[in-house]
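A further point concerns the way the authors explain their paired sequence and structure data. Showing the layout once, in full, would remove most of the difficulty. For illustration, here is how one protein appears when written out as sequence plus structure tokens:
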Amino acid sequence: MREYQGKITSMNFINDILTKTKDELEKMIPVNIMVIGKTGVGKSTLINNIFREQLAETGIGKPVTRHLRKISKEGIPINIYDTRGIELDEKTQHEVRDEINNEIDRINKENNAKEYIHIIWYCINAQSNRIEDYEVNWIKELSRKLPVIVVLTQSIFSQSKELEKMIDNLNCDISGIQRIVAEPFEEDNFRIDRFGLKELVEMTYEILPEGVKRSFNNAQKVHIQRKVEEARSWSLGYITTSFGVGFTPIPFADAAILAPIQVGMIAHITTIFGVKLEKALLTSIVSSLAGVTGATFLGRTIVANLFKLFPGVGTIAGGIISGSTASIVTTGLAFSYIEAMRIVAENEYKGISVSNEEIQNKVKEELGKQIKKRLK
């Protein structure tokens, strides 16, 4: 009977995580990025190599103006505003520029957090080895409205560094310049691998408002360590809260209070990584966590709860013991789950299939390390 109840509780825990993860994702304010650049500059290649699920190919592109479309996809908290036509004649260039400036002004006036454009990536093909006067003037104008990063695409040859210096010396008041190669380039015996994408993600992350950083981290796929660091940072709040559970005045109430904290923490971490969390995978992870924590901490939790039965000093002592225990368990849970998400994310973004058993074993190993580390 106890085994059956344990399975029901475990399944409830898993269902709660899945529900909470969905709720967390729906509450996230989307990050909105405008990508400006001539046709053929490599905007779609850039978008597909930085964001999940080949966003430029599989996302839905809705026309906003004649020369601007909005790319979005359900389940990814990001909107990409993609510009078209700026490589055409001078008259069209002015039309495009006016359209986009007016659209930015309109969005700013409406003051809708979900629509507000947070940053602009202005893309220039580094192989052209030049920036036109109208682009310089427009970049200066845009940078007075929003943060602008100049992205030098196809930075294959050394002259891209000279172009970077030249743009830097124009004093356009931009937020940064980043040279990139979004797709590996190979010609004869000459090859250049992807580079600059992680740096662009880091630069963008630092500039974005706090309220949309998690959305951006969810959507990007090239900087896994950035996801890990944010997840660890967020988990500290849950760990601190779990310590207070030890001071619950009702004996044996710890688990009932601690579970929602851990559910919220796992859901929060999952939304940062932006992976496809299937029920079978989550069941494997949770069962491995429950196995280790149950065997290690059951005795301590019972002792702590018994202390609570005594008045005065007993309650305080029990609270400290149980608080420390809850904190250690939650810390181990957080860091081992983050490691599991790191493995899942790295392989998912590379298109590599990893078995649930392999992840389960890795979680057990990591949790054991975390617990031993904190018991020393």
Summary: The CA atoms of residues 125 and 365 lie 47 Å apart. Residues 223-375 form one domain.
